[in-house]
Write a structure and sequence with these properties.
The chain is built from 4 helices and no strands. It is mostly helical.
Length: 69
């Protein structure tokens, strides 16, 4: 029961963050989040050598994800 109560509180907090957003803005936010997630996953899947070949290091991944280099 504690897990349910905690999950419910967390869910309500997350949903409260979307209050006032239009459906289009919500969809755009979710699309951006998903694109960043995929980019992060793909870059983390490369070896250090492969990252170096494209001019990146592991520490650059989050910057690239946020800026969309």
């Amino acid at each position: 029961m504690t897990f349910y109560a905690h999950s419910r509180t967390h869910t309500e907090q997350v949903l409260a963050g979307f209050q006032g957003l239009s459906l289009g803005a919500l969809i755009a936010t979710l699309k951006t989040w998903n694109d960043e997630r995929i980019t992060r996953r793909e870059l983390n899947g490369l070896t250090d050598r492969e990252l170096a070949d494209i001019g990146l290091s592991r520490s650059d991944i989050e910057i690239v994800v946020k800026r969309g280099r």
